[in-house]
Design goal:
The protein has about 675 residues and is of the alpha+beta class. Among the domains are: about 70-215, Beta-Lactamase; about 405-490, Helix Hairpins; about 495-645, Heat Shock Protein 90. It has helices at about 5-70, 75-85, 95-110, 125-130, 155-160, 215-225, 250, 255-260, 315-365, 380-450, 460-490, 500-520, 540-555, 615-625; strands spanning about 115-125, 130-135, 140-145, 170, 175, 180, 180-185, 190-200, 205-215, 230, 235-240, 275-280, 285-295, 305-315, 495-500, 520-525, 535, 560-570, 575-580, 630-635, 640-645. Helix 9 (about 315-365) crosses helix 10 (about 380-450). The longest helix has about 70 residues, at about 380-450.
Length: about 675
């Protein structure tokens, strides 16, 4: 029996495909299982890490709130009043007045954040006697009366916090709350943050402590993932869907996670710096992936952590794959076999006209000539041939059109560049030409003011002063136009270097303080970090931009308004310097015009001098320094303009990310 070449090829392809599909099918099954395990592990890790991040955020919020409370004025006010025999010699307030003020602050925090159980201010005297305590009672903040204040001198968190250096924070372990030495019922899992309070002389005065209901955090995480277990550094359960297992170290039972999963025993040996641990469990009772993740809050305490443990059963991982695997394999093999036969048949029928089309496209690509393909069929291939022919003709026409357009664009570009260059040169020359006679006018006016031989009358002195003032204003406008022309011409040279923000801001404040006072504006400088803050900028241009923002905030403010300067550390090693005013604000329809050159906003009957290019220049200068500028504004409430600049690599900013140097 003689077989045709096509038949032989078809049989060979069929055998190869069947053999390949069988081999591939086997490895596919194994790979699918491995992939499913890998995907399950990835999901498990992401889920547990996300839950860990929630815990970390809650703890960091507790620490920041405790630090904030420790910096409030009543903390030191009470110290001064106690040293003054009940009276604060600094402002005349009594100790009781300071206590009442501190209780108001504590109440505000507990009312806003109900997750905090109570806040205490504890002194060293009287065996750690509480000075002020506010706690949650019946869902509301409650001031504990003096007769119910307790002594906390023997509590571990008090002793540890009092021994810390100034500015440090002590975090307790998560445990059940105790009152007067006994565990409070119903049980209240709490986490305590405490900071030492020092006198101005550098002596420890007491401790400020905040207790947080950690049960809310635990319960929310367990609700999201019922298989999750939360443990401490010894393996005791802090959270589990079976609450009888939790807080064994407080309640006197020995329920630990390593009793259930012995493979975790090594993770609780000390020292152990592992951050996570993954293992495959197959002990006869359970089979699946076990993932253990540690959350540390103090890098100096490597043995102190909160652990998150979750277990993913293999049955959950592979159940769906096993149920569909046989059907998928049969279907795939059948489709492969049919595809081979059908593909071979139609490939021979379709190949010939397609080769003609391919040849035509190659000739067109090489010589840009069209070839008549002579395809007589009336199917899609014939349509394709016609479309290719039409496309070739269209491409030829468009190539000609594109060449003409390119030529026109080149000419237009050259014309525009020449016009722009001429404009920039004109502005530059005009600015220089105007400055020479203007300086002469101002010089003569100043000589008239200082002429002691023929002194001017008061009226003449006033007129001479107006000439000098108007000349200075005109000189500023000329300088702005000159800066704009330099920027547009690409000739603005900047000297980028590490610049300390604080002295520059101080210079700006000193410059505009008289202007603000004359206008009845309160100029508040809230930028006073503990050390220098270096940014990458041109010092002169940075100062020019910041002066522009402060000047605008004063000029466009309301009578008896306020201008506040602020600084904030941002993500990606940047710092934000802000200027906030209490002026009329900017309407939404005018916001798009703010940074456009020569645009001035309508202010009703008010008029403010200027060219309308100051902010445009400021924006371009900040961008040339690698920063950005922006604003927020509300009509009748004021505006907040800010510039974001990159921090210098040689400086460590004293501000943490998201923490402000003042409150705006």
């Amino acid at each position: 029996m003689k077989l045709s070449l096509g038949t032989k090829i078809s049989l060979l392809i069929a055998l190869l495909v069947l053999f390949s599909s069988g081999t591939i099918g086997f490895f596919y099954v194994q790979k699918e299982k491995a992939d499913l395990r890998h995907i399950a592990l990835g999901k498990l890790k992401n889920s547990v890490r996300a839950q860990g991040e929630k815990i970390r955020n809650e703890v960091f919020e507790l620490v920041n709130d405790t630090k904030f409370l420790a910096r409030t004025p009543p903390i030191q006010g009470i110290i001064r009043a106690k040293e003054g025999g009940g009276l604060d010699v600094f402002d005349g307030s009594t100790e009781e007045a300071w206590r009442q003020r501190l209780m108001v602050i504590f109440e505000g925090l507990l009312a806003e954040k109900r997750k905090y159980d109570h806040v205490r201010y504890i002194g060293l005297s009287g065996n750690g006697k509480e000075i002020v305590r506010v706690e949650q009672k019946d869902g509301k903040p409650w001031r504990v009366p003096p007769e119910k204040l307790q002594s906390k001198g023997r509590r571990e968190y008090f002793r540890n916090a009092a021994a810390l250096p100034k500015g440090s924070v002590y975090l307790s372990t998560i445990s059940l709350n105790r009152e007067r030495g006994s565990i409070e019922i119903p049980y209240k899992p709490v986490l305590r943050a405490a900071v030492p309070i020092y006198t101005p002389e550098g002596k420890v005065f007491g401790v400020l402590a905040t207790n947080m209901f950690f049960s809310q955090v635990i319960d929310s995480l367990i609700a999201e993932s019922p298989g999750l277990s939360i443990v401490n550094e010894d393996g005791y359960y802090l959270g589990n869907k079976n609450k009888r297992l939790t807080f064994g170290f407080d309640l006197g039972h020995l329920h630990k996670i390593q009793n259930k999963f012995p493979s975790l025993e090594g993770q609780f040996e000390k020292p152990n710096s592992d951050e996570e641990f993954t293992t495959w469990v197959d002990d006869g009772e359970r089979k699946g992936i076990l993932y253990f993740y540690k959350i540390r809050f103090d890098e100096s305490k490597k043995n102190s952590f909160i652990g998150l443990v979750n277990f993913f059963e293999e049955e959950q991982i592979l159940s769906q794959a096993e149920s569909n695997l046989a059907e998928i394999l049969v279907l795939v093999l059948g489709l492969i076999f049919i595809s081979i036969i059908a593909g071979f048949y139609f490939s021979r029928k379709l190949t010939y006209p397609l080769k003609k089309i391919s040849l035509a496209t190659l000739i067109f690509a090489e010589r840009e000539e069209t070839l008549d393909m002579n395809i007589d069929s009336k199917d899609e291939i014939a349509d394709l041939a016609k479309s290719v022919t039409n496309m070739m003709e269209t491409v030829l026409e468009r190539n000609k059109s594109i060449l003409n357009q390119q030529l026109q664009l080149v000419r237009a570009k050259e014309s525009a560049e020449n016009a722009n260059l001429a404009k920039s040169e004109f502005l530059s020359r005009m600015s220089h030409e105007l400055r020479t006679p203007l300086n002469a006018v101002m010089g003569f006016a100043q000589l008239l003011q200082k002429d002691s031989v023929s002194p001017l009358t008061p009226g003449q002195l006033e007129n001479a002063g107006r000439i000098v003032s108007a000349g200075k204003h005109l000189l500023e406008l000329i300088n702005e136009v000159l800066d704009l022309s330099k920027i547009e011409a690409g000739k603005m040279d900047l000297s980028i270097e590490p610049v300390d923000v604080v002295p520059v801001v101080d210079e700006v404040v000193a410059t505009f303080k008289p202007m603000a006072e004359e206008s009845g504006i309160a100029l508040k400088n809230g930028i006073f970090p503990a050390s220098c803050v270096l940014v990458e900028a041109d010092r002169l241009r940075f100062k020019q931009v910041f002066m522009n923002l402060v000047s605008n905030a004063i000029k466009y403010n309301k009578p008896n308004g306020t201008v506040t300067l602020s600084m904030e550390r941002l993500e990606k090693d940047k710092v934000r310097l802000g200027v906030e005013d209490t002026g009329r604000g900017i309407a939404d329809e005018n916001k798009v015009k703010v940074f456009q050159p020569f645009e001035r906003l309508e202010l009703g009957a008010s008029y403010v001098e200027g060219t309308g290019i100051g902010l445009s220049i400021a924006k371009r200068m900040v961008e040339l320094m690698g920063g950005s500028i922006g604003f927020r504004s509300v009509v009748d409430r004021g505006s907040f303009f800010y510039i974001d600049l990159p921090l210098s690599g040689v400086s460590a900013s004293p501000l943490d990310t998201g923490e402000k140097a003042n409150s705006v």
